[in-house]
Amino acid sequence: MNNAGEMAMDFGLRGKRALVCASSKGLGRGCAEALAGEGVSLVLNARGAEALEATAAEIRDRFGVPVETVAADITTEAGRAEVLAVAGEVDILVTNAGGPPPGTWTDWDRDDFIAALDANMLTPVALIQALVPGMMARGWGRVINITSRAVKAPLAALGLSNSARAGLTGFVAGTARQVAHSGVTINNLLPGSHDTDRIRTMDARNAELKGISIDTQKAQRLATNPVGRDGTPEEFGAACAFLCSQQAAFIVGQNILADGGEVNATI
Ligand code: NAP
């Protein structure tokens, strides 16, 4: 029973095992906590060991689920190998990594594009290739890729993100429909602005470029959001947990916006 005295929805995930990449902070952490709340045991990853261990300890204390950690850069082949060795057979994969740096379309060279493709397209592709065959063999699996609203509506300063995430979206669209018959769903979850370190860094950069205060920059940004605030990692995590649920088994190859309605589009 929840606080309102109503039956809470059971997502049927108790005892499943999830790898949540880039999850010591922000949206990845939100997904990890929501899955832990559903009784899912976790493998968490981030580069910085200190924040990673602190997050893992808090999740163990709060939710009582087993949590393993791998401090590694998920965007490198060596880092992925370390993570995959610990992850073993997981039922749920949440792909995530830091977003590419902002800039101007004339500035990016081949190396910048390759780095963005490595981090935000080829890393999730490699993780899907490594883990989905096992999920298919076992007849059940869920993959959620944290992408961006930039897939639906480009962000001018984030051309590297617009490009790399569009590539991943195309791969997922084709692949999700080839694996769904085995009980494995692959979907993308598209964050709009959420209250994390990433958005705070972007607000600071834009405030400096415009010569205004960070508070004014944030207020200007929020004025364009129908809900009038940033999303929270908890809300984002709840959407992720639902997409992982038994109830979401018929949602395949979709791109789900969590943005407070900020992308102004009919569909
Ligand atoms: P965040 O608050 O900065 O958190 C990033 C997390 O990822 C941290 O735990 C970080 O830990 C880890 N991480 C970063 N790079 C990594 C790497 N190479 N290998 C392993 N772990 C790594 O960011 P966020 O806001 O949650 O954003 C998550 C993703 O969503 C990003 O790709 C971002 O571009 C995208 N996004 C965010 C928003 C938003 O408003 N927040 C909107 C649209 C899209 P370490 O630094 O210790 O590795």
UniProtKB/TrEMBL annotation:
Q: Which domain of life is it from?
A: Bacteria
Family matches, as InterPro entries = NAD(P)-bd_dom_sf, SDR, SDR_fam
Per the record, the similarity remark reads:
Belongs to the short-chain dehydrogenases/reductases (SDR) family.
Q: What is this protein called?
A: 3-oxoacyl-ACP reductase
Source species:
Sinisalibacter lacisalsi
